[in-house]
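Continuing the series of single-chain predictions for the mutant panel. This is the parent chain; the variants come on the following pages.
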Amino acid sequence: IRSDYYKMPDIDFFEKKIDENNIEIKGFEKINNVLIRADKDLLQQVLYNLLDNAVKFTPKDGEINIAAENDGKKTYVKIRNSGAGVSPEEMERISFENGKRLFGLD
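Parent structure:
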């Protein structure tokens, strides 16, 4: 991997919880290397947090969809799960600063 490319976090880190809850992961195998100019450590933390939350809040027998695409100007990473989602009221309580959660859901 070139130094200007970032590799998604290893999904195997979450394997035990995924297997225990029979969660299906879709799209991860389709992600190609995309150019992202960012602080690798902060990007790693943000993507780890998103994957961790997706696994944590996906119900048993649910699914997580992962996608990354580049439109030539920006790279978009999408992580969606079949969980209930976050209500507008809860969204107001969630804030991130430098890739770290300040307030959030437990």
